[in-house]
Amino acid sequence: MIARQKTIIREVSLSGPGLFSGETATLTLQPAEAGTGITFVREQDGKVATISALVANVLKRPRRTCLRNGTLLVETVEHCMAALSGMGIDNAVVRVSGGNVGEVPAGDGSSKPFVEMLQEAGVAEQDAELRPLIIRKPVQVSRGDASLAALPGPTDRLEVVYDFEAGPPVGRQTVRFTLGDDDFANMLAPARTFVFEEEAKELRARGLGRHLTPKDLLVISERGPIDNDFRFVDECARHKVLDLIGDIYLVGRPIRGMIVARKSGHELNHVLARRLLEQEAADERGELLKRDAVMDIRAIQRILPHRYPMLMVDRVLEIQGDQKAIGVKNITFNDVFFQGHYPNTPIFPGVMIVEAMGQLGGLLLSRKLEHTGKLAILLSMDRVKMRHPVVPGDQLILEAVTIRVKSRTGHVRCKAFVGDKLAAEADIKFMLVDAEPV
Question: Using alpha carbons only, how large is the chain's radius of gyration in Å?
């Protein structure tokens, strides 16, 4: 049975103060087309920014998850994202208006208000297949005594096991939850944001959350909740699972596998989301290597004027129109560069990696220029970074993505990988000139 994507049926709205800022904002959920994912729209002072709910758009903030596009932000999105994930919503537009900060209404500090919105809106299945991110290899990230491990799972669900520990009266709490099988609306959604008494004093001293009282937020002293009660005996651990589900949904699709967590917070959750996307991309590149090349060396030589030892692309594995190309450069000890570049500890010159990326970019632009009589000549390089050394025996996977092509210039974003590691990246611009002198 093929799983289908889902959106909501009708528009619903919620207004209220933000958890940290106290500013009142309105959040509106709207249906969205299949394949568009979760998109936030921030409206402020006549400006409108569209922000895809992806970890690439995360702005580092303490104790919360913030998304940014340019100067406009949407703050504290994790509880809304958890509700969308927990209720199986793949595509939706989330509009946030009002206030200067752009913080999502906090409600009671849980996902319950957002779940109730989704229940009111209704869910509609769409005519598009669901394509989840499947964890195929173990991935582990850690920071101090906090850790996250993503593992292949025994089912086609996402199972989360969370181990949380704090001083009295919380102690050690362990929660196991499976998305799609367990009841998110009743088991996780009501679990509230919590803060310990000393942390609450510190936050208030910094001007955060001054609009809140212990009746509005779960403030925990050594004796227990202040002017409040736990909804679950393990409410702290349940809320941590809720946060993790919201943060990890920033991969842009549902996840299949298992995540085992210990004391993780938002920042480490974001690191895991990035690592999962990197691993998936590496797996896809590995699959490409098994296919026949779309351009072999003879076809490449018919387009590029370069020859040995300056021809740096051995094969082109994939070309998606004039938008994206993936190629290969095999690094062997016989490459002439190793005779004079760290000969006792051979490292492939970084400048040659950039040259290889540039040549693949030229091949990609050649698709656009095929019948124009133009040739792509290197104009400039920006944001050039060497990330990982390349040595003999490595296989350099090159990727070029078109940013824009005008009548006289072309702009591509290039990356080079060794396995799942990013070796180099650069933004490369070309000048488009006549292929033959006039």
Answer: 25
